[in-house]
């Protein structure tokens, strides 16, 4: 059984003007998130990502559909039961949402005090979490004395205070610089691996999904248009929305305009080789070209890596006798996708 299940979930808001059309923020979404997943929800601004996460922790009610947490339908629970449920769901935010009047220790202890845990238990738990996030020396500091990365680590520690099974991260790295982002993502990986916490990551940043998530759903205008294993969605996106996101981290096959520019700048035949986990490696393609007496120059594209699995496209300008190039490409096609615009029915 999935830990989190969404069944045909829709969230509508009233029309902003009298006689207007209601706003559909989440539109008939169905997903299953397994225990231990790091599940990314990605989409541009307005896609419905943040609304979806508010539905999962019942901060807002769904208009239609069911949301099950560990088999329990939270859309049917009274507020008193929902408060108990939320103790098992931690949340971290883009702008940290720390209490400026409380120290680091006080911020982390807050949810434990709300849950009325014994003082000795609170002290011990806070000490453990301070050590886990690397902020023991900042226990008595106030948020204004911390860097952005340190604030987010406090936010993570606070979210973990009650020992949740689920952690919701809503644009948790958007306010951080690239180096600090990687530090926070590494900490979230430890949360998942060491504590077994299931993480739902809401973001518009493909790099975050690539670095952290095991599975991903792509949202567009309130709907989930594609979902699955991160590697599968990234390496072979089926939908335009997914393709747009993938193109932000991996340069694909050149467009007709780019292709024309490449032909003006580079002699020879322009050929694209597409790589995916389990296909011939880039190095073996280069070796085959060289053994066939074919010259080559990399002119476009790139290769990406997700948890040790590579994919991407390399476009080369090949020089040499056509017979030699054709023979080399025939050998390479046995294990690698090869596209040659103008000869394969393209531009």
Could you characterize the architecture of this molecule?
The chain has 2 domains: 4-246, 3-Layer(aba) Sandwich (Rossmann fold); 256-339, Alpha-Beta Plaits (2-Layer Sandwich). Helix content is 35%, strand content 28%. It has helices at residues 49-56, 79-86, 104-114, 119-132, 148-160, 178-195, 206-212, 230-235, 240-246, 256-265, 282-291, 322-332; strands at 4-13, 23-33, 38-42, 64-69, 72-73, 89-93, 166-170, 198-203, 215-220, 223-229, 269-275, 295-306, 309-319, 337-339. The strands form 3 sheets. It has a 6-stranded mixed β-sheet with strand order 6-7-8-3-9-10, with helices on both faces. Strands 2-1-4-5 form a 4-stranded antiparallel β-sheet, with helices on one face. α6 (178-195) links the parallel β7 and β8. α3 packs across α4 (119-132). The protein is elongated and about 80 Å long. The model has no long low-confidence stretch (mean pLDDT 90).
Give a topology summary.
Layout lengths: L3 E10 L9 E11 L4 E5 L6 H8 L7 E6 L2 E2 L5 H8 L2 E5 L10 H11 L4 H14 L15 H13 L5 E5 L7 H18 L2 E6 L2 H7 L2 E6 L2 E7 H6 L4 H7 L9 H10 L3 E7 L6 H10 L3 E12 L2 E11 L2 H11 L4 E3 L8
Parallel strand pairs: 3-8, 3-9, 6-7, 7-8
Antiparallel strand pairs: 1-2, 1-4, 4-5, 9-10, 11-13, 11-14, 12-13
Strand percentage lies at 25-35%
How many helices in DSSP terms? 12
Question: Which stretches are poorly predicted, pLDDT < 50 over at least 5 residues?
Answer: none
Which CATH class of the largest domain applies here? Alpha Beta
Please give the share of residues in helix.
Answer: 25-40%
- Going by CATH, what is the homologous superfamily of the largest domain? P-loop containing nucleotide triphosphate hydrolases
Mean pLDDT: 90
CATH architecture of the largest domain: 3-Layer(aba) Sandwich
Largest sheet: 6 strands, mixed
Q: What is the string of helix and strand elements?
A: EEEHEEHEHHHEHEHEEHHHEHEEHE
Strand order of the largest sheet: 6-7-8-3-9-10
- Could you tell me how far the N terminus lies from the C terminus, measured between alpha carbons in angstroms? 49 Å
What is the total tally of β strands?
14
> What is the third-level CATH name, the topology of the largest domain?
Rossmann fold
Radius of gyration: 25 Å
Count of individual domains? 2
Large-scale geometry = elongated
Structural class label = alpha/beta
Organism: Cnuibacter physcomitrellae
Protein name: Methionine ABC transporter ATP-binding protein
Function: Part of the ABC transporter FtsEX involved in cellular division. Has ATPase activity.
Subunit structure: Homodimer. Forms a membrane-associated complex with FtsX.
